[in-house]
């Protein structure tokens, strides 16, 4: 019997899972499921940490990272630091389908998005941090984030110049500050795809790109299955954990072994990092592994043939 359709995604983002699975049930491709599922989170602005207006940088501006990858052809599209446009996942899909290129960044990625017909009603973004009129076209949420922020260097009494370079904030990833939807889908014809969407890390240095739009880091799909990652992207991207998990599955490991191994490699060098990896193989088996997540429990969603609703799983 055929294993598909199956969809899994990071964190308890149930509507994203449900919509992606619905797409598969209606005969949509794995790629369509990833686009629909990750876009659902962008629209809902899942916990303020996916989609427009959340996790502002030090200037108070939000921007978006997203990618999509086709496990059949290895075609990939991604955008990083996408500004003034809310449709990151759909723009990534357009990069994949309408260009020979893989990753577009910043304002030029936005220009591509606008040229493809995506856009927003946001007027030009002003640079005045925490000015009320700045937020009108953005969202009320970053205003909240602006208040309590104190650069770590300031807390440590560093000079202003040093402070400007020292913005690393070590955070424990919890169910309150998780930032990324990562999704893997297997469609009824046995094709696989994976993707991500996020607004990244709060109070990042402007220009910072996370792991989410980097193929092999944020997600990966190939002949054996797919994987996606969430967590401390600046650390995790150094280990390409989604590629690593796929490679393990390609060599015959189970999704459980593959995700545990990908996490273990990062933990060996950075015992304090926080993060999780999910994986789905072409037989429809899936698993996740995590490190240093709040309560040491990583919640993710899965829906397979026969499930009326997405199931919340715990790794
Ligand atoms: C990033 N990996 O931009 C994302 C953030 C995240 O849980 O997933 N946090 O680093």
Automatic annotation (TrEMBL):
It holds the Pfam family Asparaginase_2. It comes from the Eukaryota. InterPro entries: Ntn_hydrolases_N, Peptidase_T2. Transmembrane segments: none annotated. Belongs to the Ntn-hydrolase family. This is Oidioi.mRNA.OKI2018_I69.chr1.g1099.t1.cds. It comes from Oikopleura dioica (Tunicate). The lineage of its organism: Eukaryota, Metazoa, Chordata, Tunicata, Appendicularia.
